[in-house]
Amino acid sequence: MKKEKIVDKPECEEDEAAETELEQELAAEDAAEGEAENDAEDLEFLKAENQRLKEDFLRAYADAENIKKRCAQEIEKNNKYAISSFAKSLLSVADNLHRAIDALPEDKKQNCPEAMSLLKGVELTEAELMKVFDKFGIKKMESLGTVFNPNYHQVIQEVEDKEKPNGTIISELQTGYMLNDRILREAMVVVTKGGPSEQH
User: Fold this and answer.
1) Where are the domains of the chain?
2) Separation in Å, CA 27 to CA 19, 40, 146, 184
3) pTM to 2 decimals?
4) What is the rounded distance in angstroms from the CA atom of residue 45 to the CA atom of residue 39?
């Protein structure tokens, strides 16, 4: 029987195969590490992008809220003061009604029923106008007895009076009016002078 001859692989071929296998393992490890680094970088990028988008959203939301508040304030302001021109025109009506009431002499009030009926009608009309004024935030300023304030009063005349503090309003030639918290018309007043200065 013929014996087969066993041929051993050269050692160099075995070493090359081992080296190749080792290189492949190292390459696979490097690839895995590279992928892990890439994944970590991608994760950091996504986190940063998410934070940026969140900040952009919060800024946009805050801007929208501010615009909403400003619009609400403008609407409220317009609602409160839109009638100012119309209200100013009506003040002369109120002035004339008041003058008509003051114009009736005292003796006519006592002795003339017709005049008294007319006076009653004018007073009722004035009262109705004041109700309308009140409904829309138009109010008379109470000036008599107070100290002159340049923001609310216009001095027409000064009268010597040492008994009252300087600048006390003793007469009102034209009534002042407010529209909500704004001056609609200054009061025209007569004030005292020569008295002691008002202490603030």
Assistant:
1) 54-136, 139-200
2) 12, 20, 97, 88
3) 0.59
4) 10
| Longest Cα separation, the chain | 168
Homologous superfamily, domain 54-136:
GrpE nucleotide exchange factor, coiled-coil domain (3.90.20.20)
Q: Which residues of 51-61 are buried (b: 16+ CB within 10 A; e: fewer)?
A: eeeeeeeeeee
Distance CA 169, CA 96 (A): 22
Cα separation of 50 and 52, whole Å?
Answer: 5
pLDDT by residue (tens digit) across 26-67?
667 766 666 767 777 888 888 888 899 999 989 999 999 999
Q: Taking Cα atoms as reference points, which of 186, 191, 195 lies closest to residue 168?
A: 191
Q: Report the amino acid identity of residue 167.
A: G
Residues 183/149, Cβ–Cβ less than 8 Å:
no
* Residue range 139-200, CATH number: 2.30.22.10
- Residue 189's nearest CA partner among 154, 140, 142, 160 is 154
What the block records as the tokens of 69 is 């508040």
